[in-house]
Design a protein that fits this description.
The chain is an alpha/beta fold and 186 residues long. The chain has helices at 12-33, 61-75, 122-128, 132-147, 175-184; strands at 51-54, 82-85, 92-96, 104-110, 114-121. The chain has a single domain, classed as 3-Layer(aba) Sandwich (Collagenase (Catalytic Domain)). It is globular, with a radius of gyration of 22 Å.
C-alpha cells in the first residue's frame, strides 16, 4: 500500500522568511548584474537617489555663499540632481579647521539607511586659495559629487570637477561628471 506523500506545512514565519530570502537574492542578482556604462568612473558610495537633503548649515558670508553656490551648481545641471536643506536630513556638512592635509572629506555612513557627512578644511583652503570663494565652491561641488556616486580622479582627458586641481577656477560640475551622474541615475 502506498501512502500519499505529505509535504510539511510551512508556518507563516517560515513562509515570510522564504519570501524575504527570495527578495534579497533577486535584489542581489540585479545589483551584481548592473554594471556602470563603459567609461563611467563611479564610487558606489553615494546616495541611492540623486535628490537628497542635507542639514542646514550656518556660517559667515565668506563660507555660506560659496557653499550655497555649490549646491545650486549641481541643481542646475541637466541631471536628476536636486539637493535641498532640511533639518530632518540625515546628512550634513561641516566647515572647520582640521590638522589633515585634505581640502574636503566625504564619509558614507550606514544606519537604517545611507547618509554622509562632508568636512571642509578651512585651514588648508585658506592657506592655498588665491580665490577663496571659488575654492570653497569647487571643493564642495567635488564632495557633493561623491554623494552622487562619483569617484576621485577619473582617468579621462576630459574636464572633470572630480579631478584634483583647478580649485580656484573650476566651480561647476563638468560634462564628464554630468554624464556619469546620468549613467548612475537614469
Amino acid at each position: 500500500m502506498r501512502f500519499p506523500s505529505v509535504r510539511p506545512r510551512r508556518s507563516g514565519t517560515r513562509r515570510a522568511l522564504g519570501h524575504a530570502v527570495t527578495a534579497f537574492v533577486t535584489a542581489l542578482v540585479a545589483a551584481i548584474a548592473w554594471q556602470a556604462p563603459a567609461g563611467a568612473t563611479l564610487s558606489g558610495n553615494g546616495m541611492a537617489h540623486a535628490d537628497f537633503q542635507i542639514k542646514p548649515y550656518s556660517y559667515n558670508s565668506q563660507w555660506q555663499g560659496p557653499m550655497d553656490k555649490a549646491i545650486s551648481n549641481w541643481n542646475v545641471t541637466a541631471t536628476p540632481v536636486w539637493i535641498t536643506k532640511s533639518s530632518s536630513a540625515p546628512s550634513w556638512v561641516t566647515a572647520a579647521s582640521y590638522s589633515n592635509t585634505w581640502y574636503g572629506l566625504y564619509s558614507t555612513h550606514w544606519n537604517f539607511g545611507r547618509y554622509f557627512d562632508i568636512k571642509l578644511n578651512s585651514r588648508t583652503i585658506a592657506a592655498d586659495a588665491s580665490n577663496f570663494s571659488n575654492f570653497v565652491t569647487a571643493v564642495f561641488v567635488h564632495e557633493l559629487g561623491h554623494g552622487l556616486n562619483l569617484a576621485d580622479n577619473p582617468s579621462t582627458s576630459q574636464a572633470s570637477r572630480m579631478k584634483y586641481g583647478l580649485w580656484d577656477s573650476q566651480t561647476t560640475p563638468q560634462q564628464y561628471d554630468i554624464n556619469d551622474v546620468n549613467s548612475y541615475y537614469p
